[in-house]
Amino acid sequence: MSLKPSISSDHTMLPLSDPPKNQPDDKLFKGSAMTKRGAYAAISYMSCAVLLVMFNKAALSSYNFPCANVITLLQMASSSFFLYILRRWRVISFTASESLHISDTSTQFVSLKTLKHTFPLAAAYLLYMLVTMEAVRGVNVPMYTTLRRTTVVFTMLAEFVFVGQRYTQSVVFSVGLIIFGAFVAGARDLSFDGYGYAVVFMANITTAIYLATIARIGKTSGLNSFGLMWCNSILCGPVLLVWTFIRGDLKTTIDFPYLFSPGFLVILLFSCILAFFLNYCIFLNTTLNSALTQTICGNMKDLFTIGFGWIIFGGLPFDFWNVVGQFLGFTGSGLYAYFKLIGK
């Protein structure tokens, strides 16, 4: 018996596909600059991001799994599998104009021309991923958190360069408050390290380029968020597989003593599922709102990540100025969200 579900006349696409931006009847409230779908995308991203950090932390710390690249590879492979099955079953489409009722026996869901068009996105993602991992390795956590908060500035510059985006004084003020709070939070731990600073700022630049590339290609490729995820997985997966093989991570994974532990496998399963939804929410939030909104959401979810991390894993020492800095950063993120909602 075929596993492929029957296609009825009332079979519709998932309601998460990207709609036209700024629909008159989709505003969060009168005068709002953010749509209801945009707000749902932002909240969904923050929820998935916090949960994914918890599961990744459990795998890497609680089980001491040494290969973060392998987890990333598994997440990417799972994402490709989920997208393939959902597309073959016609539950989703990869373009906004694609009909789910058209008979399709081809396994090539996206044309070669479209793959070439999305290549800069895949390249930006790989560069962002590799540089970010090196940044984590090269500096201590307080310094890394402090310097990574400055990503918002690089994102604003990237959006201005790539899509000509300009910002109001209200937005600039809220971003300035985030940066000030970040340096207050980490000031007691900052110690100059030329290489560490350089790598973290490179991570900020690559993050900004990646998000700005999502915003630009998302508007010019004709693909929705599922289609962008598919192209990203198809182009990046083989490269990451070769990279993990060269580094010896695959052999290390095979020799890992808890590889077939039920608890570890459950954590990996949820990590892969959450990564799929997180990647979708990143694409959706960036295309529905903006790259800067995505970055601000990343800052806002840090508060919940720190809180849940302290409750579940412990080990977070109390420091007055760190708390003050975190509060200032969260206030800045809240102000940005407020200005976004009221359209200022």
From TrEMBL:
Topology relative to the membrane: Multi-pass membrane protein
Composition bias, Polar residues: 1-11
Localization per record: Membrane
Record keywords, A-Z: Membrane, Transmembrane, Transmembrane helix
Region of interest called Disordered, as start-end residue ranges on this chain: 1-27
Record keyword Membrane present: yes
Record's GO cellular component terms: membrane
Domain of life of the organism encoding this protein: Eukaryota
Main subcellular localisation: membrane
Stretches that traverse the bilayer: 38-56, 68-86, 119-140, 171-188, 194-214, 226-246, 258-282, 303-321
Span of domain Sugar phosphate transporter: 48-336
InterPro entries: Sugar_P_trans_dom, TPT_transporter
Protein name: Sugar phosphate transporter domain-containing protein
Organism: Vicia faba (Broad bean)
